[in-house]
Design goal:
Length: 546
């Protein structure tokens, strides 16, 4: 019953704010345009406010999931009109607040002490208010300034109902529209569900913040505030108060002489460092969560807050993504196509040359152009439309990465539109791959794998015994069927044992030979001790059979 009531509430909000007027009719078929013309929303008079504020108010009324969507759109003035982008920017930290007295009650209930004993000062008027939580300024008894982040009361139930409706819609979409299956709508919604539920737990956000802080100690690129764990609970987070200029406040940044070009380049470096060095990246980098330390305007530093949403990549995803981006930056569309097919994202029966030509037609027009002339949003739409012809599947584990990349582009576009994204990113990717395949990188990989190898050492005697048992078996075959004894045999044929040794040796040695190539060296991180042992035995067999 609650879900039905929520569905009715969403429908009424759509009608009351006449959200049907935001649908681009020119992109719809005749059937859908006809449905928009006769829908019940036409019985409602549109609000008198401008379309930007109206959409912002509607998304606030719809709830946190829709507010998140609006936050993403606010960073994409290339995808939405400027007046709408400006209005939606208020969703980043200017959502309708809830009473400060209620926030104080939540803090006291969570920490089991009155606010007066926890803080010298606690401001009931919030500093900022977002879709899931709001922030209050406070001062600790020792005089340190902090911020207190408090989860909105009752928000868990609203999000749970909305996520269930979204999952139901994705399930029906999967069943009724065969083409949607390659998009994995159910998996994408489930991943988003886990991400959003994590954002409701302040302990997880605090842990993410601490991890990011450890990843960038005393860094000139970015500063992460300190968490006060003794005052942090599931519904309350207390952390160091930072003082910086909101990254969207370009007027202040320019008036203080901030090096915006360096700031934009450092944003790209931070993104690639988090993704490839740490495999742990801030996945909610909209302007409301990013500030700038302008203590030294010529050497600005980012300040990141709100680490509730983070993303991670497996070593395999990291390697695949890096090689794909390198091939893309170097315009090696053949390798891009082969990587897509080898990863299984594209059916293996796809003709490489056809997919290569399709990728070239999408990618080639965007090179040698500054960021101000490139829209990743539009580029991804075109790439998606092209890949649809080849039954390309969406990878749910990369959805957060794609969202973060869109946020980064939006920030770069605002700071320094002339930024050459390719020239900034290419050296970093080349350096990262080079570090993986050079001796220091391989040594680090061995150090990481050593505990696992030690655990596998009890298997070594069995593996050695099995390998040499197969060799003895081949010798027995040779003794029972000597060369030339068969009716149709040739006296010049290789003895079976020699053929067998060569076959086994080549198979076992393949992994070792692969490690001699740059791609193979990059994959050494994934080799296990039995794999290395098999390669060594294979080499011995080949030498013996030669």
């Amino acid at each position: 019953m609650r879900r039905l009531a929520r569905l009715l509430q969403i429908f009424l909000i759509v009608c009351r704010y006449r959200l049907d007027q935001f649908v681009p009719r020119e992109r719809l078929g005749d059937r859908w345009r006809w449905l928009l013309r006769i829908g019940p929303w036409r019985l409602f008079t549109p609000p008198a406010s401008e379309r930007g504020p109206r959409l912002k108010e509607a998304l606030e009324a719809l709830g946190p999931i829709h507010v998140k969507f609006g936050q993403l759109l606010s960073t994409r003035p290339d995808l939405v009109p400027e007046d709408i982008a400006i209005a939606l920017a208020e969703l980043q930290d200017q959502a309708t607040p809830f009473p400060g007295a209620i926030a104080q009650e939540i803090v006291e209930k969570a920490l089991k002490k009155p606010v007066s004993s926890l803080f010298n000062r606690f401001e009931t008027t919030p500093m900022a208010s977002a879709s899931i939580a709001q922030v209050h300024a406070a001062t600790l008894p020792d005089g340190r300034e902090v911020v207190v982040k408090v989860i909105r009361p009752g928000i868990e139930g609203t999000i749970a109902v909305d996520l269930h409706l979204l999952l139901t819609f994705a399930t029906w979409l999967h069943r009724l529209w065969p083409e949607s299956r390659r998009l994995h709508p159910v998996e994408v919604v489930r991943d988003y569900q886990l991400t959003l539920m994590d954002e409701l737990d302040m302990l997880k956000e605090a842990a993410n913040t601490s991890q990011l802080r450890r990843n960038f100690p005393a860094s000139p690129l970015i500063y992460i505030p300190e968490v006060h764990w003794e005052l942090t609970r599931k519904s309350v987070l207390v952390m160091e108060r930072i003082h910086g200029v909101p990254i969207a406040d370009l007027q202040t940044l320019r008036s203080t002489g901030t090096n915006l070009k360096l700031l934009a380049e450092r944003g790209v470096e931070i993104f690639f460092t988090q993704v490839f060095r740490d495999s742990f990246f801030h996945a909610d980098m909209h302007p409301g969560n990013i500030f700038v330390d302008i203590t030294r305007p010529e050497d600005p530093r980012y300040i990141a807050i709100d680490c509730g949403i983070v993303g991670t990549l497996s070593p395999q995803d990291q390697s695949y993504l890096a090689r794909n981006l390198l091939a893309f930056f170097k315009r090696d569309y053949r390798q891009v196509a082969e990587l897509h097919i080898s990863s299984g994202w594209i059916p293996r029966n796809t003709r490489v040359n056809e997919f290569e030509a399709a990728i070239r037609s999408v990618c080639e027009p965007i090179f040698d152009r500054p960021l101000k002339d490139i829209s990743f949003g539009q580029f991804l739409v075109r790439l998606f439309q092209t890949a649809r012809r080849f039954d390309m599947e969406v990878q749910p584990q990369l959805v957060l990465l794609q969202k973060t990349l869109l946020n980064i582009e939006g920030l770069g576009r605002q700071l320094y539109p002339e930024l050459d994204l390719w020239a900034t990113a290419l050296p970093y990717l080349e350096r990262w791959l080079r570090n993986r395949i050079t001796p220091p990188g391989l040594l680090r990989a061995i150090q990481r794998q050593l505990p696992q190898w030690i655990e596998q050492t009890p298997e070594m005697p069995d593996l050695i015994y099995q390998a040499f048992d197969r060799i003895r078996h081949l010798d027995d075959v040779q003794a029972a069927h000597p060369a030339g004894s068969s009716a149709g045999g040739s006296h010049n044929a290789d003895p079976p044992s020699r053929k067998g040794r060569m076959k086994w040796g080549v198979a076992l040695l393949a992994g070792g030979l692969l490690a001699g190539t740059p791609a193979g060296l990059a994959l050494l991180h994934d080799l296990s001790l039995p794999g290395l042992l098999a390669a060594a035995i294979g080499a011995l067999l080949v030498l013996q059979a030669w």
